[in-house]
Amino acid sequence: MSPELTFRKMLYKISALALLVASGLVAQTSVPAKVTADLPAGPMQAKATTACLECHEARIILQQRLSKPAWTKEVDKMAKWGAVVDPADRDALIDYLSTNFSPDKPAYEPQRTAVEKKGSAPKNY
Amino acid sequence: MKSRREFLKQMSRAALLAGAAPSMLTWALPQEQSVPFPGEEVMLLRSFRFVDLESPVEYFDTWLTPVPHFFVRNHMYEPSELDANDWRLSLGGEVEKPLTLNRTELEKFETHSVVNTLECAGNGRSLQRPQVPGIQWGKGAVGTARFAGPRLRDILQRAGIKPAGKHVMFRGLDEVPGKVPPFIRSIPIEKALDPDTLIATHMNGSPLTKHHGFPARALVPGWVGAASCKWLTEIKVLDSEFVGNFMNPGYRLPNQPVKPGDTVKPEDTHPLTALSVKSVIAGPSDGAKLKAGKVTVHGAAWAGEADIVKVEISADGGASWSPAKLAHDQSHYAWRLWSYDCKIGKAGEHTIQSRATDSQGHTQPATPVWNPSGYLYNAVDQVKIYVS
Predict the structure, then answer these.
(1) What are B236's strand-pairing partners?
(2) In chain B, which residues have their Cβ closer than 8 Å to the Cβ of A9?
(3) Does B236 lie in the same domain as B194?
(4) Do the chains contact at A110 and B44, CB–CB below 8 Å?
(5) What strands, in cross-sheet order, belong to the sheet with B336-344?
(6) Is the separation of the CB atoms in B198 and B218 below 8 Å?
(7) Mapping DSSP to helix (H, G, I), strand (E, B) and coil, where does residue B295 land?
(8) How many domains in chain B?
(9) Does A24 touch chain B (CB under 8 A)?
(10) Count of CB contacts below 8 A, A vs B?
(11) Which among B205, B239, B271 is the end of a domain?
């Protein structure tokens, strides 16, 4: 993991926490809102998390409904673009993605962004 | 799940309409349903880290889309550090006198404004079958705003275009993860010199927000959103189309119609330019439960560089079509709002469809035209309603 990306992740956590504090949600709920989602459980969850979520979040994957050939193309493209996939794990990663996110799965239901409190939005957003 | 979502949707709408304390809504929404996102309200969250937000179609009831409800499409990270005082826009390549402009110098150019419907080329991708990879937009990666700023033409002419200059490249300050190719694209010189092509600094009367490209973005009216590069920092005049991932193989259409699921060779494709004719039903919502009687169907229709001449509605599954009333507000590159009152007396499920026709004679197809990246989905729109 590059130091820049580690720093970026830290920034996301800090900014997410800041948003929660600003909106008063920390005090109001026992479970803090997660701004990013997780990949589903499975033998490749940890390795997929490392390979894919270094650059983008799980939602990019969760919303796809692709065949195995299409997932194969995506995994190979992403490896070319910097995803760290051990060649020994490539097939298992493709299986994991094409099992969990195949065309026959129900459509992805996106979350919505919240309605803001008046005056809570920083300038230039 | 559906009814819960409907309930939440209705609640959020009611709260907005009534001006009720928005914090109450935040309280009421379960945590897994709502994600804090400053400046972007009640948007469908396609991605948080690369910001990708879709407008719910029920917001397509105003000619100009309010910025907090305007879709956001980013291919990568937004600039982490962007100081307006340090920002510079350089112009080079096939020009006589390369320029570098700061914000004050940019503001000295004459300002021009264009009301433009901006749509992501992948809008509607989730409706393609077979499914294709990419952000799985529903119907809401589109919006209309009044963009303002200097004409690109004026800036190019100050630098002086050499005869070899045939394309104009835009580079933004997007931050690239891993070894992903940078988001750089180009447009032909003819479109760059169009008096309505802008270096936009304002949107709906206010400076661009960060999500929309502050402090300046290209605005290529009538064309796919990807042409309108955000956080613009470099313009380069080239002798040929820019060579890079987001020009080829990205953002291209097959030269000939292909069968759904077919593979297409890059040499059999061409770059996307103008948007296609399209209409979307903003209300009633898909799945709405209504009482028998008058139902007002309304929505928006747009056609890139062409004008909308007709929107027709069918309430009987496409057997018969009636013209909708086009709203007064119009501008060359902007959508037209439309509405149609129909009477539905019979209880049960009804399919309402909308179909637009443009000034070039193009009409929305009854079935989607498939392509490997799911671009320019523009099939006849439809919603199902339940009448009691």
Answers:
(1) B92, B169
(2) none
(3) yes
(4) yes
(5) B278-283, B293-302, B336-344, B325-326
(6) yes
(7) strand
(8) 2
(9) yes
(10) 158
(11) B271
Cβ distance B11 to A85 under 8 Å?
no
Nearest by CB to residue B36, choosing from A19, A31, A66, is A19
Residue with tokens 């339940």: B386
Below-70 pLDDT ranges, chain A: 1-34, 116-125
Helix (H), strand (E) at residue B22: helix B22-28
Query: Which of B23, B87, B210, B263 should one mutate to test binding to chain A, selecting the residue with the greatest count of A CBs within 10 A?
Result: B23
CATH class as words, domain A36-108? mainly alpha
Answer whether A80 sits within 8 Å of B8, measured CB to CB: no
Whether residue B137 sits in one domain with residue B234: yes
Q: Could you list the residue range(s) of the whole structural domain that residue B344 is in?
A: 278-387
* DSSP assignment of B347-375: -EEEEEEEEEEETTS-B--SS----TT--
Given a contact cutoff of 8 angstroms between Cβ atoms, the answer to whether B133 and A97 are in contact is: no
Output the domain CATH number for residue B235.
3.90.420.10
d(CA B238, CA B227): 16
Regarding whether B255 and B234 lie in a shared domain, the answer is yes
Which residues of chain A make contact with B47, given a CB cutoff of 8 A?
A: 56-57, 59-60
pLDDT at A95: 98
Does any CB of chain B come closer than 8 Å to the CB of residue A105?
no
Q: Which two tokens stand for residue A6?
A: 């580690």
The answer for B 104-163 residues in CB contact with A (under 8 A) is: 126, 130-133, 135-136
**Residue A123 has what pLDDT?**
37
- My answer on whether B347 and B234 are in the same domain is no
Partners of A12 on chain B (C-beta within 8 Å) are 49
A11 interfaces chain B, CB cutoff of 8 Å: yes
> Can you give the CATH number for the domain in which B294 is found?
2.60.40.650
Beta-strand ranges (E) seen in A1-125 are 111-113
**Each residue's pLDDT tens digit in chain B (388 positions)?**
334 344 344 434 433 333 333 333 333 444 456 888 888 889 999 999 999 999 999 999 999 999 999 999 999 999 998 999 999 999 999 999 999 999 999 999 999 999 999 999 999 999 999 999 999 999 999 999 999 999 999 999 999 999 999 999 999 999 999 999 999 999 999 999 999 999 999 999 999 999 999 999 999 999 999 999 999 999 999 999 999 999 999 999 999 999 999 999 999 999 999 999 999 999 999 999 999 999 999 999 999 999 999 999 999 989 999 999 999 999 999 999 999 999 999 999 999 999 999 999 999 999 999 999 999 999 999 999 999 9
Q: Which of B223, B239, B271 is the last residue in one of the domains?
A: B271
